[in-house]
Write a structure and sequence with these properties.
Elements lengths: L10 H8 L4 H16 L4 E2 L2 H7 L4 H13 L4 E3 L2 E3 L1 H36 L32 H5 L9 H13 L6 H14 L3 H11 L11 H7 L10 E4 L2 E4 H12 L7 H4 L12 H14 L16
Antiparallel strand pairs: 1-3, 2-3, 4-5
Helix pairs in contact: 2-4, 7-9, 8-9, 11-13
Length: 315
């Protein structure tokens, strides 16, 4: 097993994601998610291994997996099985571990410097006029420069993420310094989470912060044109934006709510989305409702009319 033995779990997100699934489907979904985290990324689509891992018959496993893929819970990418949210969390976890490792190295280096200074046996004079309050010489010897003390802020700040251009990251750091807010691992994780929720890239979120003077970023601050401007840098199924009652949603999330409401899996959230589809005054785009109804109609056909889901076998 190449992954580490834990991952972040968000109960509210998980319960919203599995609402409407059968206990059997929830079980398979959970087992396959854990398998993806174990492998630290996508897993081979090897049916024998996977249905044995889930403790199921092959025919039942194929049926359940087909439904999970159809609902967008899992994704078949080439010869692998994956989940977009799991990949995001794995990548975020790797960045956090890298930043913690770097902070530990800096801390160890500072301790070694203090030990070396103490071993010289030289006693510093507190009121020496040739030093400032940080005991840094005011007039260092020729050819040498006064060492600037390492501040706690620079130690806590993370390194530049690979997906952010150098100039953009420099501008963002200047903005955060103006607000006296270092870009810590926790602060950056919040920006990534909100950018993922809005369906835009991390670099687009940082660019919006710099353009508008935002110290942080929240998905509900965006206007529809902001999301459209960022489209093409995110996954295609979440880049589409729909504005309802002043809030921005992804098209995929609206489709899921409509599907669950039309199939009776949940009640329609009228407090957030207004009147339900089919009633006069409904604000849900008709095109989205039509797509969902087509999916439901296809699934309601007699079994003899439906082409069974038959993914390619992997040796």
């Amino acid at each position: 097993m190449s992954g580490i033995p834990y991952f972040n779990f968000y109960p509210a997100d998980f319960m919203n994601g599995v609402r409407g699934l059968s206990p059997q489907e929830v079980g398979v979904y959970t087992m396959l998610l854990c398998r993806i985290y174990e492998e630290n990324g996508p897993v081979d689509l090897h049916y024998l291994r996977l249905y044995t891992y889930c403790g199921m018959r092959e025919s039942t496993f194929r049926k359940v997996l087909g439904k999970l893929v159809e609902l967008g819970k899992l994704e078949i990418r080439g010869d692998c099985l994956t989940n977009a949210r799991a990949e995001f969390e794995i990548s975020n976890r790797a960045d956090n571990l890298k930043n913690k490792k770097r902070a530990g190295e800096i801390s160890a280096e500072k301790r070694q410097q203090k030990q070396r200074a103490a071993s010289t046996g030289v006693e510093r004079v507190p009121n020496d006029k040739n030093t400032n309050k940080n005991n840094t010489p005011l007039n260092p010897p020729e050819g040498e420069s006064a060492a600037r003390p390492v501040s706690r802020r620079s130690k806590d700040q993370i390194e530049k993420p690979e997906s952010i251009p150098e100039q953009l990251w420099s501008d963002f750091l200047a903005l955060r310094r103006k607000h006296r807010a270092p870009v810590t691992a926790t602060a950056w994780a919040g920006i990534e989470r909100e950018a993922d929720k809005a369906g835009i890239s991390f670099s687009r979120a940082v660019a919006l912060c710099c353009e508008r003077g935002w110290r942080g970023f929240r998905a509900d601050w965006l206007k529809p044109e902001d999301v459209r401007a960022g489209a093409g840098t995110s996954a295609p199924d979440t880049a589409q934006a729909v504005t309802l009652n002043g809030r921005v949603y992804t098209a995929q999330s609206i489709k899921r709510v409509v599907f669950e409401a039309l199939t009776g899996a949940r009640t329609w959230p009228a407090d957030k989305l207004g009147l339900e589809p089919g009633k006069p005054g409904c604000v849900i785009p008709p095109a989205l409702v039509s797509e969902v109804r087509a999916v439901i109609a296809e699934r309601s056909k007699p079994k003899s009319e439906i082409i069974p889901f038959q993914p390619r076998m992997i040796a």
